[in-house]
Amino acid sequence: MGAKEGFIQFKRETPVSRDPKERIGDYKEIYEPFSGEKLNQQAARCMDCGVPFCHNGCPLGNVIPEFNDAVYNQEWGQAISILHSTNNFPEFTGRICPAPCEASCVLGINKDPVAIELIEKNIAEKAYKLGLIKANPPEKRSGKKVAVIGSGPAGLAASDQLNQAGHEVTLFEKDAKVGGLLRYGIPDFKLEKWVIDRRVALMQEEGVIFTTNTEIGNTNQAEEILKAFDAVVLSTGAAHPRSLNIKGENYKGVHFAMEFLGKQNQVIGGEITENPISAKGKHVIVIGGGDTGSDCIGTSNRHGAASITQLELLPKPPKQRNNLNPWPEWPMTLKTSSSHEEGAERIFSILTKEFTGNEAGEVTGLTLVDIEWVEKGGRMTFEEIPGSERTVPCDLAFIAIGYMGPAQNGLLEAFGAETLENSLPKSKNYQSTNPKVFLAGDMRRGQSLVVWAISEGRETAVKVDEYLMGTSSLPQKDVSFFQVEEQIAG
Ligand SMILES: Cc1cc2nc3c(=O)[nH]c(=O)nc-3n(C[C@H](O)[C@H](O)[C@H](O)COP(=O)(O)OP(=O)(O)OC[C@H]3O[C@@H](n4cnc5c(N)ncnc54)[C@H](O)[C@@H]3O)c2cc1C
Ligand code: SF4
């Protein structure tokens, strides 16, 4: 380890973001470049802990102190090889991961944690620049064929691993382009799409076959796939949105978040010319305080909304951890996203009661009531505050309160995969109730994060490889260390 006392010498520093007033004029990534010298200082802050809690925090088990050291010593080949040993796509997680590793970094006990996510992004970008990331097709082919259905981060990671194991992988995707929510959910100001295209081109060169514009769902297709392939991975996400179940949800102008974000990403990707849902000049209300809600705020600001208000049922979290939420737990503190910085009013502890509308069936308002959270019988519940009910103007509303589970489109049934009461598929070691059919990502674990989807894809690939070959030499996560907690993206 190079600089043992870097954490005393250097403060945590991350890239400056572009002026919010300027950046809402485009959809480009918001951060300014970060100098090599500064990055070196950030890597030097790592203490190379005897027990690196950052490993525990990362769902992929990233080998963090080792890659920090390689960055400090400017050994980029080593840095990317350490990073790739646990993470297929550090250029994605280095941009959009909420970084649970940083939340469990030992420095975080009484200082700012090591800027692990920033270091990860820079290793990936430097390695691409230096030509250290290039197509590396497997030397031997197994003669086995695997179909992967759904090309989000889970399907991409499973395909990458299975291809490396020598199997012929065909990835079926219903949309025109590959990437799932990386492409059609997350806006460009968080993840520009050339980043996905660059990786997909490499995977193609390595032998993965991508079949887009192909929705798999009916029983005949499933039968054909089950006959033609030796194993199947289902990684179709958790696209069934949760609704508010309040009066007026059917008014024109009330949408699920993904109706808006999906179309905007199609505009940016050149698939369509105009978003049919425009926020320009509108009073926008975003219901839900998570990542998806933030993305609706950022996109509405770029459309030129008249006002944006974000509502959250839960109380406003504290700015600092409290005693009930000690390190190294995920900090339940107030998060201010880059989209919040660009402008939006945030209201906490608020309940939506009813949308109101005009004779043309368009939404015009939303009735709200303040609530108070109280403990009753050992659990937290809320009570409406009498006299606080009011109707606020609303001509566009985005519902961003999460997902119920996989889309209800008969896909699981067609592949003989039984489901639980909560609509998630039954799974044991990533295998469904049909032994030939495996499961990965949000469709298996429920709505989650990109880093978890990559982890699921990798772990599923090991199980598929074992099923096909009796044993697998693909890397597997060391679960003996600690059990990582899942962080849910809203
Ligand atoms: C708006 C939004 C913002 C988010 N922001 C973040 C963030 O900043 N950081 C983070 O870590 N996580 C974020 N998440 C969560 C993250 O994107 C997901 O957890 C992750 O993408 C799940 O990956 P997946 O591969 O399981 O599924 P998905 O990404 O949902 O991919 C599933 C794929 O399957 C395809 N498919 C579905 N059905 C079929 C079918 N029948 N036939 C063929 N193809 C099919 C879909 O078209 C899609 O391409 C966000 C989610 C949303 C909605
Ligand atoms: S916990 Fe933080 S300081 Fe310790 S090894 Fe990991 S990144 Fe470095």
From TrEMBL:
GO MF term set: iron-sulfur cluster binding; oxidoreductase activity, acting on the CH-NH2 group of donors, NAD or NADP as acceptor
GO biological process terms, semicolon-separated: glutamate biosynthetic process
Domain Dihydroprymidine dehydrogenase: 24-129
NCBIfam families: GOGAT_sm_gam (TIGR01317)
Name recorded for this polypeptide: Glutamate synthase (NADPH/NADH) small chain
InterPro entries reported in the protein's UniProt record: DPD_II, FAD/NAD-bd_sf, FAD/NAD-binding_dom, Glut_synth_ssu1, Glutamate_Synthase, Helical_ferredxn
Pathway(s) where this gene product acts: Amino-acid biosynthesis
Domain spans labelled FAD/NAD(P)-binding: 144-457
Lineage of producing organism: Bacteria, Pseudomonadati, Bacteroidota, Cytophagia, Cytophagales
Keyword terms, alphabetized: Amino-acid biosynthesis, Glutamate biosynthesis, Oxidoreductase
SUPFAM superfamilies in alphabetical order: alpha-helical ferredoxin, Nucleotide-binding domain
